[in-house]
Amino acid sequence: MSNNISINKSRRYLNPYLGGVLLGLVLLAANFVSGRGLGASGAIKSVVATTIGTVNKEAISSMPFMAEYAESHSGSPMKSWLVFQMLGVIVGGFLSGAVAGRLKLKVEHSPKITSRRRLIFALAGGVLFGFGSQLGRGCTSGSALSGMAVLSLGGFLTMMAIFGTAFALAYFFRKNWI
Amino acid sequence: MGPLAPNEIISENTNFLLAFFIGIAFGWVLESSGFSSSRKLAGIFYGYDTVVLKVFFTAALTAMLGLLFMSLFGWIDLDLVYINPTYLTSAIAGGVVMGVGFIMGGFCPGTSFCGAAIGKIDAMVFIGGLFIGVYGFAFTYGWWEKLYLARYLGEPKISDKLGISDGLFGLLMILAALGMFVVAEWAEKTFAREEY
Amino acid sequence: MKQLKLLALIIIPLGIIIAAMPADKVKQSRLTPDELLQEAGAGVQFISPDVVADMLVQKDPSLRLIDVRTPEEFENYSLPGAINVPLSNLLSDEYTDKLNQDAYMNVFYSNGSVYANQAWMITRQLGYENNFVMEGGLNYWFGNILSPVTPSQTSPDEEFARYDFRKSAAAALGGGGVISSDAASPVSKAVKPPVTAKAKKKPSGGC
Questions:
Q1: Residue range(s) defining the domain that contains residue B18
Q2: Whether the model pTM is above 0.80
Q3: Of B28, B85, B99, the CB nearest to A161
Q4: Are residues B17 and B70 in the same domain?
Q5: Subunits that touch chain B (at least 3 Cβ pairs < 8 angstroms)?
Q6: What ipTM does the predicted assembly reach?
Q7: Backbone phi, then psi, for B87, in 5-degree steps?
Q8: Are C127 and C29 within 8 A, CB to CB?
Q9: In a domain, C74, yes or no
Q10: Substitution target from B26, B51, B68, B182 for chain C, most C beta carbons within 10 A
């Protein structure tokens, strides 16, 4: 019975090699059009910078990390390539999910744990990832993927560090997933 | 001659508009490949689902070859293409922290937006965490500043460091990736789990 | 597995092709007219004959003088150690290695500055680096280095220093008969002009 379901589900997803080629073409397009690769964490930084600036104008200048960022972006930090790209990602993800019938409000978690536990780990994971992405100057999309495509040494090292660490710790979190 | 925006063949606003469309394509492909599911993303670490490995490396290689061939045909000026800078200490330290975040949260920023777009609440919570983490870094920046700026090496390319040409490195990576894919296929059969 | 084989079948040949390509065919760095205009206007390619003279006196191994005049003029007189790359043959294959390299500091010279500057512009547009132009050419060289003009009593100190330097340089390089005074130290300590900074837009990006 469960076999049937899994066959059904995997048909609805693209073949991974095909998906990879398509993603590579999108990345290539980004480089050709804009001279830069894809990314994600930078958009979060823009939103945080804008929020701080709106809530308290002086706070920005007391945060050297954000202040440099605000300076390099004339106008608002929201007027950044990545912010526009991420808005597109939301639309694209939604459309793809809609077409495939995957739209559903739910917490995805292993049946062996509660959804509450999943959410706690999701939050903690997000905090760590957010922090790490600023320290590492990029996330898997911006640093690892786009970096690899242009042969950046930094991108490659970050990728190794991310996946290496996750592999090393996988055993300790196995209950959450399998 | 590309890239279009740095060569001012298109305006900044067109660039942003195209960024939006490129984003749509990005989001679509990610979601269609299953990256909106944290379970599939975490699968690489337990062997039952190697979609991350296959998509990631195929994409990196496709784009890498694409850029090299376009440069060969004179369609793009690689000097104007952004290469991520290398700050040795923070690249690795940041990667380690992200690795922990990945195995705990089962998402990365790009995929979490895809997940959130199709209604995954765990993805939305992950995004919330991202904001907190970014803010936390900015707030405590003073503690990390030295680490953040340490060991700046410029923008070296892997091929330069190894002393080989870009093309040769590309070929080596292709072979390495294909080898990994073979292992991945084996792993999926051996470690298969039920879908949920 | 089938798709993997298909992928391998396509991507391996592509990889082999790109690996086999010579590196500089894959990555060209020609300048756009705008960029060339900027660099030419800034004059970064010019290097003073005093600096060249000093490098010759010090026997600086990184200097390579390139005479862009005709072979006949080159035979008639050339600067010490210069090689001849006539402007009319500038783009011939036999000279590419000498012009597109990063081991030496090539300094083009001609009688004035015009032809040497033309040689620089053409090679710069092709993306070659480490090429410079000796400002004033041989005319300036003869008039001011080999037979330096004695400064008047009221001239500033640095003019005297420069005069002393030129006298001793001229003696070393076979110029007008002058008793080499104790040239304490040459005016400019062979300060190499900065390698032409790319006037291109710095790419931006990041996550």
A1: 1-83+163-196
A2: no
A3: B99
A4: yes
A5: A, C
A6: 0.93
A7: -115, 100
A8: yes
A9: yes
A10: B68
